[in-house]
Amino acid sequence: MNSVAHTTNPPQMQHKRAFALPSLRAWLAAGQWLVTLLLCAFLIVPVVMSILAGLTVNYFQGVASGLTLRWLGEVWTQYHASVFLSLEIALATLVITLLTGVPAGYVLARSESRASRIIEEFLVLPIALPGLASALALLVVYGGFTMFRTSVAFIVVGHVVFTLPFMVRAVAAVCASSGLRTLEEGAASLGASFFQRFITIVLPNVRPGIVAGALAVVTLSIGEFNLTWMLHTPETKTLPVGLADTYASLRIEIGSAYTILFFIMTMPLLVAMQWLGVDATGQRNTRQKKTRVIDTTSSAENQS
Fold first, then answer.
1. At the N or C end, where does the chain have fewer CB atoms within 10 A?
2. CA distances (Å), 242 to each of 28, 47, 90, in order?
3. Lowest-confidence range among 106-115, 150-159, 163-172, 276-285?
4. Are 262 and 243 in contact (CB under 8 A)?
């Protein structure tokens, strides 16, 4: 009886344990969640308020004045040409960066010479410089060619200069993996030519980097303002430049409606990047990588 009495906890002790204070680890976790939620609110609330301003009849009266799509209609009527022009410039920029950035990223990842590192630093230089400085450099060099200066191609060149490093870095990060080099060596030992290795081994394995770079290029091209503002003409006004004009010269409801239009264009690209599981360096989860490596190895062996 005495042993049973000693091993059994009294009801008062059980009651105290049930109402024990949270541990220090729990307090830290709660604090982290609180800070995260506050930061999210700090960033998201202005966006939500701007969207509401573009949907309300009168901004100064707020939602009580009613909701309307009138401002979106006016923005589309006045600036739909800028929307299509931004998409055309983004697609042209994407094509050029794909044709130049993918081979450049592959070569830079494979080369270990000092010259390749210097070239890589020069490619990244436009990111470190302000967009206005890059635009001024283009104007100084090519501003004298009137036909080129007033054409859409001039803006495309500026966007390529600005976005090419993102494509090169994303592709180079994947090409630098030792597994890809081993696959290429194995395919070469089986008699595959460089072209066959590049098509059947390199491109399938660097696809995550290409997708990441492509999404970054299109998103940055659509949203680029500083460089475009210096290079544009009244006939080559893009979406961000039009957004600045609406905030400067029109009522705030139209400017906010323009923000909604810009939001609609860019959000699908960001969601696509998350849905594909691709980060800024072009990496994906390990299981997908292993599956892709096995598939490309078997296809290379079959072709050889």
1. N
2. 46, 19, 16
3. 276-285
4. yes
What whole-number distance in Å separates Cα of residue 76 and Cα of residue 62?
23
Whether residue 201 is contained in a domain is answered as: yes
Contact by Cβ (8 Å): 215, 274: no
| 54 has a pLDDT exceeding 70 | yes
Location of structure tokens 């296809």: 299
Minimum mean pLDDT range among 32-46, 130-144, 238-252 = 238-252
Q: Residue 7 has which token pair? A: 């091993």
Q: How many CA atoms lie within 13 A of 83 on its CB side?
A: 15
Q: What are phi and psi of 56, to 5 degrees?
A: -95, 155
Nearest to 234, CA basis, from 85, 77, 132: 85
Q: Which residue in the block uniquely carries the two structure tokens 């770079």?
A: 213
Same domain, 45 and 107: no
Kindly state whether residues 120 and 225 are assigned to the same domain. Answer: yes
Say how many domains are in the chain: 2
Task: Tell me the CA distances in angstroms from 24 to 31, 32, 35, one per residue in order.
Answer: 11, 12, 17
**Tokens matching residue 48:** 């939500």
C-alpha distances out from residue 199 to 38, 103, 177, 210, Å: 48, 12, 17, 14
